[in-house]
Sequence to fold (420 residues):
Amino acid sequence: MPKPTLRELSRQAVKQRVSDVAIDLFLERGYESTTVEDIAAAAGISERSFFRYFATKDAVFFARGAEYTAAFIERVLERPAGEAPWISLQTAVELTLTSFDNDVEFTKAREVREILAASPELMARQFAHVADSQRELGDALWDRWQADPARHTEDPEIRLVIRALVGSMLGVLTEVMLHAEDLPPAERMRLVRATLDAIRPARADLGGAP
Amino acid sequence: MPKPTLRELSRQAVKQRVSDVAIDLFLERGYESTTVEDIAAAAGISERSFFRYFATKDAVFFARGAEYTAAFIERVLERPAGEAPWISLQTAVELTLTSFDNDVEFTKAREVREILAASPELMARQFAHVADSQRELGDALWDRWQADPARHTEDPEIRLVIRALVGSMLGVLTEVMLHAEDLPPAERMRLVRATLDAIRPARADLGGAP
DNA sequence: GCATTTGTGGCAGTCACTGCCAGAAATGAC
DNA sequence: GTCATTTCTGGCAGTGACTGCCACAAATGC
Fold:
């Protein structure tokens, strides 16, 4: 309620509305055949103003996705600092899947993924975002690893190792989200668990099988 | 020398030349500030014709990269069919690194990667291409797995597992190519070996530690 | 109440990319 | 070699994403 927030608040509200309108249009006519002008008109703003809220056309689509990604990263970092990276990642994946199944916006999210899968251009951006998250999360886990005196090491490859672990984890998560959404939640969870167990690294300090 | 080849041959020659000219311009002024018109003019063709050779501006950049990717996939598939997927992948990575170090175009390739790293737009496309390769290679390895009666299985997750293995492998390879290019070849090879050993899956049929 | 900051629409311009068309060039049959 | 056919090419107009600039309106601070 303080003064600086008010402006920001209305800005967020407008962004939200524009994003909602845009998603609806994408669902109706597809991403490519919806112009920014269409979106702006439907949202009641000018095209010029659209680009003051979103840097690019695809940003309006990913506005929501970024929240999911941030939530996932947050879940990983909420795990105890001394935990093996693989275990932290695995736990966060399971929490994410569970919360996702309970999401009231489940149907909406599914439609959004249809838009995504139908547009190669959007898919490319999506992969880039995932890669960014991978780097961000990998670095965060690496910092945490370095901060723990018990396992502090000068190994140059540990950074690479951690990034690779994050990469395979995100790969499985993305794959499941895109191609196993028809499965009932329990079955999907079982599939993810089995997959993660299969590729679990052997090294104990990374989270190797008990 | 047969008739249908002649046309195709000159077409390939033109593509090659346009691509070379374009890379030079990108190195000089950067990717974003080089227009398609610039490239076309420098190559002695019209802008309209440029788009008859390359579907998009970035295609002219990736014309070469696609060959490297194809070569990597080929190396994996040249491995004996019964070999564990992880071993096939690891061997192909090492072969790729070795051949890369011996490449006469090493310097050029390095400059090309600089262009890539400097442009977020190109990076996004690059990730998308890697993701495509991941799918392609994963499916190929999966087919091979299914074809082997000794380990034929109806496990629904084995496909996911193999894709994840490919993903972490490509992740390490990409990371090393982009960020460890300053290391001497022998040191880089050691780094890659150590990383791959660390994340090697425990399961023996996938290629687990001996 | 007024000065300053911030947000807005309009307009012109750049750049990637496409469809269309008319002319040049290579190809193949005779 | 000639001619009809196919293929390639440049030019041109148009669309759509995106930016810089400007004048004006609205909110904010005092």
In short: Chain B has nine helices and no strands. Residues 7, 45-49, 52 of chain B lie near DNA strand D (CB under 10 Å from a C1'). The CA atoms of residues 15 and 141 of chain B lie 32 Å apart. The interface with chain A takes residues 120, 123-125, 127-128, 130-131, 134, 155-158, 160-161, 163-165, 167-168, 171-172, 175-176, 180, 191, 194-195, 198-203, 206, 208-209 of chain B (CB under 8 Å).
